[in-house]
Amino acid sequence: VGGARRGVRRVRDGAEVLRGRELEVQRHEGVDCNAMQALQGDAIDGDKVEVVCFPPAIYAMYARDLLRKDFQMGVQNCWVGKGGAFTGETAADMIVDCGLGWACLGHSERRHLKEIKESDETIAIKTKYALEKGIKVMYCVGELLEEREAGQTDAVNERQLKALADQISDWSNVVIAYEPVWAIGTGKVATPDQAQEVHSNIRKWLKNNVSAEVADNTRILYGGSVSAANCGELSTKPDVDGFLVGGASLKKDFLTIVDSYKTSA
Q1: 57-92: per-residue pLDDT in tens?
Q2: Secondary structure class of 27 (helix, strand, coil)
Q3: Contact 124, 163 (CB under 8 A)
Q4: Which of 49, 67, 139, 155 would disulfide-bridge 261, Cβ 3.0–4.6 Å?
Q5: Which residues pair with 136 in a beta bridge?
Q6: What is the DSSP letter of 188?
Q7: pTM of the complete model
Q8: Which residue has the higher pLDDT, 103 or 8?
Q9: In Å, how far from its chain's centre is CA 189?
Q10: pLDDT at 38
Q11: Pairing assessment for the beta strands 71-75 and 136-141 based on DSSP bridges
Q12: Distance in angstroms (rounded) separating the CA atoms of residues 15 and 99
């Protein structure tokens, strides 16, 4: 992952390549061997779509052995900085040692569970360190139901994005995942037009506050009760560059979500 959005050309490994715009992600709550087998299918077109799976860290290597090789692997969290006497934490350095290329940071549960309550600054700092170690980051943003009802969706996303912009200058290995917290695991889904509006505003913020190049090249995923039934319409929106998938990732029709890149905008 880390390629450009559709239609944008970028030099990579000394060659000019045309990359796709879609990224599908699954975040396993555990490792289900039957689910892994169910995800076998035709090889994906790596120039147009990339799949990254985020199991709990303790299962990551086992999942890597079970899962098809054209799917990439990451972890759901990492420590805020360099390794040391931080019992129970997983440092970015350890993730690199295991050959895993991704970390999902700032997920709504990390931000909002009362037992964790990570701040915007903490998430941004750990993102900075992970990027410095060569790890690609799925950076999650999104609003609570009460924030949406108060008309604060854009303000919340912009606050969370500003925290990251204050820490990094190179966004080439960052993918943004917009996850309206009120739609995660609830069966409620932002309408395609709602998703497009928020994604468009995120892209405008990047253009105005980071650069036009970053705005054009950064993929913005939608995450919130994505399923095989709704992915097709969502994927037609020009600023929806893929999906952060939860429960649906453990079902055979996850492959339908993956294949939605074939008909995306």
Answers
A1: 999 999 999 889 999 999 999 999 999 999 999 999
A2: coil
A3: yes
A4: 49
A5: 102
A6: -
A7: 0.87
A8: 103
A9: 17
A10: 66
A11: unpaired
A12: 25
